[in-house]
Design brief:
The longest helix is centred in the N-terminal third of the chain and has 33 residues. This protein folds into 2 domains: 36 residues; 49 residues, no CATH class. α2 crosses α3. It is an all-alpha fold and 86 residues long. Helices cover 80% and strands 0% of the residues. The protein has 3 helices and no strands.
């Protein structure tokens, strides 16, 4: 029972961290667009920085895992803002 509570708490903490991180990144994205940086240039730069930092801080296996998960999420329509969730 305690393990379930710890796992639930860990999941809630992770969700909150993801929400806050997403908020910061949305703000940075909007600021870059206001400066005239095109979305494709911004996305390429963001991915490059993210993967480089992740490689440095967590290693190649973590980068590979992230890239694989992104591919799976793309295939499932995760990034399609017009998708309908049921």
């Amino acid at each position: 029972m305690i393990l379930d509570s710890d796992e639930n708490l860990d999941a809630l903490i992770r969700e909150e961290k993801q929400r806050v991180a997403s908020h910061f990144l949305h703000e940075a994205w909007d600021s870059a667009l206001e400066e005239g940086i095109e979305p494709t240039i911004l996305a390429d730069s963001a991915i490059d920085v993210a993967l480089t930092r992740l490689f440095t801080e967590a290693g190649e296996d973590n980068v590979r895992g992230l890239i694989e998960s992104l591919s799976d999420r793309l295939a499932s329509g995760h990034f399609d803002a017009s998708r309908v969730l049921q």
